[in-house]
Amino acid sequence: MKQAKLPKVSVIIPVKAGREIKTAIAALRQVDYPLELIEVFISRGVNPSRQRNKAAKKAKGEILYFLDNDSEIEKRAFKRAMAIFLGRMGPVKIPQTRGFSLFPGWLSNLIVERFFSGTIYKGNIGAAGGPNVWWREEPFWASMAGIVLESFFVHFQMAARYRPIGLIHRATEKELILCNLAVRRDIFKKVGGFNESLYPNEENELLNRMEQLGYQLIYHPGVLVFRPRRQSFKALLNAFFHYGRGRMEQIRVEGVWQSLALLSPLVLLFYLLGLVFYHPWFAFLPLILYLGMGFGSALGFAARKKKPYLAIFLPSLFLIAHLSYALGLLYGLTTDLKRLKGRGKRAKIKVVKVKEFGKSWT
Q1: Of 35, 108, 272, 287, which residue is 20 to 30 A from 189 by alpha carbon distance?
Q2: What's the pLDDT at 1?
Q3: CA distances, 338 to each of 252, 315, 345 (Å)
Q4: How many CB atoms lie within 10 A of CB 340?
Q5: H or E element that contains 184
Q6: Which residues contact 1 (CB under 8 A, 6 or more apart)?
Q7: From CA 285, how far away is CA 265, in angstroms rounded?
Q8: Which residues contact 254 (CB under 8 A, 6 or more apart)?
Q9: Residue closest to 270 by CA, chosen among 186, 222, 326
Q10: Cβ contact 191:197 at 8 Å
């Protein structure tokens, strides 16, 4: 890529009071991208959606790049993401999918072609992103959280948010994640920014609005950020509960079910409750099928990581994660969206520019 034609990038990082930003800033200092084309905003407050919107109003770059305070961006991520917007997506050596459980290669490839691929049309790309990964040594529960998030059995298409899957392709909101997301600033402004009543899932609803206007969303498995996983069992369950809550609140805002697959954990929950009252032998067949699929996924992880105990431990963890998500879906039916939109409205949001275009770091 010719340096003169690279777009200016406005990086936006929301952070709560007292939280550190050193990790994200240290990684940004190392990116392989012209220093003069980067500006960085830190937005402090208690409503991340509003924080991002307020920082976006001050941004001057052609591209808004959203990170979290613990996102360590990979040094080539900016160049790879900008190549998407410039229509210069060539072959790149990147980590590929590490298989789907014990499926043979041909079946794994079929899954990639069916769920993680799409034609890209030049000229109407609105957003691009890639997975957040963590390949360093970590505590036990953090490693378990990483497996659950990466599991195709648990997360289906959303597993692409947590490990590189497939090649560069047209995606949906299910594959992109806000801790590693680039959006054209003009389109962000055109669609009205983030819905401030949503957190999480504010990016999912935004991306759906962009798609409805005809803009493409692009997934690039080589646009990486490194981000640590949940550090405890409780934190993992809490995360899945809030993922479910956020998804249901998104559905209520949009007024439409985007995918029946998103309801499957809820079906599982009601099915298990039904077994308490109706339990002939044949009623257990769906449960046996579910556990068998979970065991197959667990065997795959056990084999790849060379840890046999995962084959026994993971199926129950997969089930607990699905049920936590289902409970979050139910809770999301009861929340007051107007109150959520007003969350932190009186609290002051402080936006600080820590790096300006054309200048060095301060």
Answers
A1: 35
A2: 41
A3: 12, 38, 12
A4: 17
A5: strand 180-184
A6: 79, 82, 83, 86, 88
A7: 17
A8: 205, 208
A9: 326
A10: no
Single-letter amino acid code for the residue at 1: M
Looking at residue 240, its pLDDT comes to 95
pTM over 0.90, yes/no: yes
Alpha carbons 293 and 264: distance in angstroms, whole number: 14
C-alpha span between 233 and 72 (Å, rounded):
24
Q: Which residues pair with 182 in a beta bridge?
A: 65, 128
What distance in Å separates the CA atoms of residue 276 and residue 256, rounded to the nearest whole number? 32
Both tokens assigned to 299: 């065997």
Residues of the chain scoring pLDDT < 70: 1-4, 90-106, 257-259, 343-344, 362
- Closest-CA residue to 217 (of 261, 192, 187, 259): 187
The per-residue pLDDT for range 214-255, each reduced to its tens digit, is: 999 999 999 999 999 988 999 999 999 999 999 999 999 988
pLDDT at 121: 79
Rounded to whole angstroms, the Cα distance separating 344 from 348 reads 8
